[in-house]
Amino acid sequence: MCMGGDKIREIMLAAHKRQMTSGKYIFFNIELFNASSYGNGSWKRGDEYDNDARQAYAALNTVTLLRTVKPEFENFSTEMKMSFEKVGLDDCKDCEEVNMFVEGFHDAMVLYAIALHEAMKNGYSKKNGTEITSRMWNRTFEGIAGQVSIDVNGDRNGDFSLMTMTNVETGTYEVVANYFGVNGTFQMLPAFSTEHFTLKEGHKEHPEKSETPCKCGLGVSALTGVIVGAVLGTAMLIAFYFFRKNYRITIERRTRGEECESRKHRQLREDSIRSNFSAA
């Protein structure tokens, strides 16, 4: 899921009501901006559904940008909060965390400064955008929140953290794993539990029914897609055939009509010429 925090809470409450949060399903939430308005795993709202939401969120896992504990980032966050207060944003509910755009803009300026310094040191002008840009690619440097890696195409290798609820009684979330894009590796933290990411088999509510396991889900969806695709493809071929046939008939009729008109005009001209010669 990737949407506002309130919508995610509604979905998780609905899933909990349908008993889908007991381990038979695993839910993932993508947090884009390190902000509560985009669903940072915050289940508490101070209403009558808090208890159910806390239990429901035990099945919710949040994928977010790499969470860092660098002292430099803490200082950066403090300075940003002070800036928010100076411009009158002290009541901002999402100002507890610096979002990815602020962090990314900071690192982008650092990267530009590094590339500009290298280019000018090697005799290039600060107006030489091609040279400066090329020096931004395929390099790694230390950003405000951690290591920043830019690949050979100029794209940043993303680093992400996975958060889960490690204490259902208190409803607290904790980072259990990190992913590093530069080498595609995972780092499992002490709080990581394989049991949390293992689906539990559902009990049989109707044992008298057939024991044959239901092979539905993706298989049925794929088969349905193939059938629908085949029907649509056949319909398009038939439509194309009739269109081509009608088009050919129309062209042939028009060609015959034009030939007929041409013959009529030619006959009239010949009759006119004969008449003139006869009169002469």
Automatic annotation (TrEMBL):
GO terms for molecular function: natriuretic peptide receptor activity; peptide hormone binding. It is a single-pass type I membrane protein. The chain crosses the membrane at residues 218-243. SUPFAM superfamilies: Periplasmic binding protein-like I. InterPro entries: ANF_lig-bd_rcpt, ANP_Clearance_Receptor, ANPR/GUC, Peripla_BP_I. Pfam families: ANF_receptor. GO terms for cellular component: membrane. GO terms for biological process: signal transduction. It is found in: Membrane. Gene3D superfamilies: 3.40.50.2300. It comes from the Eukaryota. Keywords: Glycoprotein, Membrane, Receptor, Signal, Transmembrane, Transmembrane helix. The keyword Manganese does not apply. Residues 1-166 form the Receptor ligand binding region domain. PANTHER family: ATRIAL NATRIURETIC PEPTIDE RECEPTOR 3 ISOFORM X1 (PTHR44755:SF11), NATRIURETIC PEPTIDE RECEPTOR 3-RELATED (PTHR44755). This is Natriuretic peptide receptor 3. It comes from Amphilophus citrinellus (Midas cichlid).
